[in-house]
Fold this sequence. Notes:
Blueprint: H1 16-19, E1 35-40, H2 47-62, E2 67-72, H3 75-86, E3 94-97, H4 101-109, H5 117-123, H6 125-128, H7 131-134, E4 138-140, E5 143-144, E6 148-149, E7 152-153, E8 156-164, H8 165-170, H9 181-193, E9 197-199, H10 204-215, H11 220-228, H12 238-252, H13 265-273, E10 277-283, H14 287-293, E11 298-301, E12 311-313, E13 316-318, H15 326-336, H16 339-347, H17 362-376, H18 391-404, H19 409-423
Parallel strand pairs: 1-2, 1-3, 9-10
Antiparallel strand pairs: 3-13, 4-5, 4-6, 7-13, 8-10, 8-11, 8-12
Helix pairs in contact: 2-16, 10-12, 10-18, 12-19, 18-19
Amino acid sequence: MKKSTKTGIKVAAVAAAGALAFAGLTGCAGGGSKTFTVWWYSGEDTAQYKAWTAALEEFKTLHPDITVKFEFKTWEQIEKSGNSILDSDKAPDLSEWNKGNGTAGAASNAGLLKNLNDYAGKYGWDKSLPLSAQAVGRYTNGLMGQGDLYGVPTYGEYVGYFVNDDLLKASGIDAATLTDDAAFTAALDKLKGAGVQPISAADYMLVHLAYNMTLNKADQDWVNSYQFFTSPVDFNDEQFTYASETIKKWVDAGYIPASASGATADDAVAAFTSGKAAFMPGGTWLDSTVAGAATFNWSKILAPGNAVSTGSAGNVWVIPEKGHNADLAAEFINLTLSEKYQNMMADDGGLPLLATTTPTDPTTLKTLPLFQQLVADNGLGFYPDWPVSGYYDVLKASVIDLVAGNTTPAQYREAIGAFYNDNKPAN
């Protein structure tokens, strides 16, 4: 799960132990105008890594007088120690950064990131990037969603269902018809009756599943209230009540096995890719894993009935204030948003924001149209753990207890609601 949650955190609060995670791994931030240092943590198997690497090679040829220094980081390093590094002489000139209130938001609020409004105007990012994608890079007083631009996304991600088309076909079910609650529930019931496990899910997937069920009854006004605190949230409203009660019904009916409460996400992926389950809720970061492991015909669908789905633009490029080459950093950001590298990302199985051609990658052909539909409909609901600090652990523990039968739907709502209200920012 792409989680970055803390609201209003200050750099001084970053643990010293976290800062040590970078010890020995970071060089100097640039050493002057003749060195350009860039970090990212998207892995070698991702489409963005491949596109950005190619763009960096072009960047080198465009600036033969500049020494380009690339350093690969991990998500955990940025999450634990990122802001403390930004506030040091080891800050890079450009970095991929975790989106959300607790990371990019906290860094922007602490004055550690450059305001990119002028660069956005120069390069046209404020017009070319969809508004729902820009939201992950805009912050006001550290809160994501609107305000000045501090981060620029180049790709997207969303959570839907992976579908074993062969199992559905054997039961006479067409995934294309599963567009509402009734049709989807009927399909789950039919699969269960045929001896097929309907859904494979565990760990963070259960958090995504619960939030997507909540979004099933939501619109963007509800999302804005929950994510950006535009109005109070009632955790006994139609949205949370539907989600919690439906999960219990699905466990009771055997659509989700109660054993999912003790399984790992890897267990769930293995069960799905081995052909033991018909559906698996999952994010697009699992696309290449499923494509490489599944020996059956598979496809993807958005959560049936949802006008809004879990997802967002991806993590963002940021330009640290303590870097030395902001203009070069902005130029490289623009290069990664160019048609050439956006289309390359699509052809390698990614979800670029600005691709202009039909991708050749078969996995992208399954996933990109769904993402483009969400963006066009302003249907990105972000992630459930973003609003308040430490929320992910609470959401996961609470939904696992619900699946295990340790709590009731009402107790689930009480637990997640209490933490949210106790930790949301003061008005």
